[in-house]
Amino acid sequence: MTSSLIEELRRLAAQSAPEECCGLLLGDEPLAVAQSCANVSDEPRRRFEIDPVALIAAHKAERAGGPRLAGYFHSHPEGPAEPSFTDRALASGDGRVWAIVGAGEVRFWRDGAGGLELLSTVVTDG
Predict the structure, then answer these.
(1) Where do the domains of the chain lie?
(2) Which pLDDT does position 126 carry in this prediction?
(3) Across all residues in the chain, what is the average pLDDT?
(4) CATH of 3-118, one of 3.40.50.920, 3.40.50.720, 3.30.1490.20, 3.40.140.10
(5) What is the distance between the alpha carbons of residues 92 and 96, in angstroms, rounded to a whole number?
(6) Where is the MPN domain (predicted)?
């Protein structure tokens, strides 16, 4: 991933605290970009739910030749950059990347058939 993506994710998390930020990762790795979305969860301090209108728009744009929906991101304002119990329960196995921001770091996870698996990350200036 690029250092600019990681810094943008940290910035969005800090800006949204104490609520969880969330959004989409668009484009191809390692040059994906973050698109912030509204967190429409009933409990935005404890959970995230990406605005379904933004998610549907991203899928439509991808089908029309726009940027690929590479994955999703969200923050844990009071926790580590690791999937919570809820995150693991909501994982769909779609193969996309989840970026989680917490405790000052950003970690990337693959949503695979076996659940969320930590990815090794190489940071480039990109």
Answers:
(1) 3-118
(2) 59
(3) 94
(4) 3.40.140.10
(5) 9
(6) 1-126
Separation CA 49–CA 22 (nearest Å): 7
Does position 35 have pLDDT exceeding 70, yes or no?
yes
For residue 45, the Cα-to-chain-centroid distance in whole angstroms is 16
Residue 46, both tokens: 């404890």
Give percent of the chain with pLDDT exceeding 70. 97
Whether the predicted pLDDT of 31 surpasses 80: no
Q: Name residues whose C-beta falls within 8 Å of residue 75's C-beta, 6 or more positions apart in sequence.
A: 9, 12, 13, 16, 17, 20, 21, 22, 48, 100, 101, 102
Whether pLDDT at 76 is above 70: yes
- Average pLDDT of the segment spanning 3-32: 93
Q: Alpha-carbon distance 59 to 123, whole Å?
A: 27
Nearest-5° Cα angle at 104, 24 to 101: 20
